[in-house]
Amino acid sequence: MIPQEIIRRKRDGEELDAADISSFIAALAAGQLSEGQIGAFAMAVWFKGMSGEEIVALTLAMANSGDRLQWAGIDRPIADKHSTGGVGDNVSLMLAPIAAACGLAVPMISGRGLGHTGGTLDKLESIPGYRITPDAELFGKVVKEAGCAIIGQTGSLAPADGRLYAVRDVTATVDSIPLITASILSKKLAAGLETLVLDVKLGNGAFMADRRQAKMLAHSLVEVANGAGVQTSALITDMNEPLADCAGNAVEMRNCLDFLAGRKTGTRLETVVFAFAAEMLVKSGIAASAEEADAMARRALSSGQAAETFGRMISMLGGPADLVENPERYLARAPVEKEVPAARSGWLAACDARGIGISVIDLGGGRHHPADRIDHRVGFSGLLPLGTRVNAGDPIAVVHAADEAAAEKAAAALAVHYRIADEKPELASVIAGRV
Fold first, then answer.
1. Which residues have C-beta within 8 Å of that of residue 134, sequence separation ≥ 6?
2. Which pLDDT tens digit goes with each residue over 103-123?
3. b or e along 137-171 (b: 16 or more beta carbons within 10 Å of the residue's beta carbon)?
4. 159, 246, 323, 344: which one has the fewest Cβ atoms less than 10 Å from its Cβ?
5. This prediction's pTM
6. What are the catalytic residues?
7. pLDDT tens, 211-245?
8. Residue 280 neighbours by CB distance under 10 Å
9. What digits encode the pLDDT tens for the residues 175-188?
């Protein structure tokens, strides 16, 4: 196998056979390819695409590049959810313990920030002591005893994806349907799932900016996963504004704990969390209908079972045993917090969600290069939802920054990311479709 020949053939639009794809991915996993070769392959796929057969071959090769998890001894359905990435999207943090409290086993393999989007692992790393890469024995123990565990890829789980994922982040090849499909599903197949639900984001803060692209990605994911034996469905959700009222790492962890304490009712975030909880419970056979599943999930939250499950997971994976009760003791705050005033009176009519995600990175809350260290303290909180009436000077958000200069820059950028209109806008539903 000559890597540059495979790259050339894909660059020229040829269809690669399964053996060539398997050989290329095996070399990638073994560390035999340079970052230049990996980036060139990703760019060739971005421009020329892949057939359905190529995507299946790429997904299976990546899934088979490491270990495949087994869940013998767990008498619950094995289920998971994955998002294609957005801004202020911390659904997984609340959904996993809610689903576990309802009777599912949720081994959630998550990723770091990719492009302008936030990463679940980066958020969890704002918790002191939390182990995002436990060994297989501890991972299984936490899933069995707590009901859920949210971790990152270990070196032995789809290792080819781990390296390709990092290169895609810094080579403008994130928004490729074949690469997104293979990246997401290789980890899920390796995790030994029985059922999977997918959150495909749509809008200016998503990798798929228009409805046609989002539907194509959703269909690709569902068809490949079902073809590989994992019962899968997808919801398409709106990402034309941050999903939560915050964006960052520690700030989103605080949002998670507020949600689990019942302090985020009536929000777009709540709608999405319970929609996916219902989807997971019905698909796994725990509930007979979406209505029954929704009621179960809401009881798990209101009773405190979900928060208790989350706390147990955090503690078993090395975090503080009392994080749920005392978040401010552990989640560091940025030295500077600055309100962002509305430029004029009117209605918050639109925003550039992608721009907000980029602003978090510029604050230090994300990466420009794979080796960059993240400042977990920084970001935005108090982001007002679109459709809110404001007066000139009212705060539309709060910047959390490492210093005054960074806070001033981020506040100015955020003000530009919002459009204020004279009339109240008509807003799309946060659940935009189902596949």
1. 142, 149, 151, 317
2. 999 999 887 766 677 789 999
3. ebbbebbbebbbbbbbbbeebbbbbbbbbbbbbbb
4. 344
5. 0.88
6. 80-83, 120, 168, 183, 187-188
7. 898 999 899 999 989 988 899 999 999 999 999 99
8. 28
9. 888 998 998 899 88
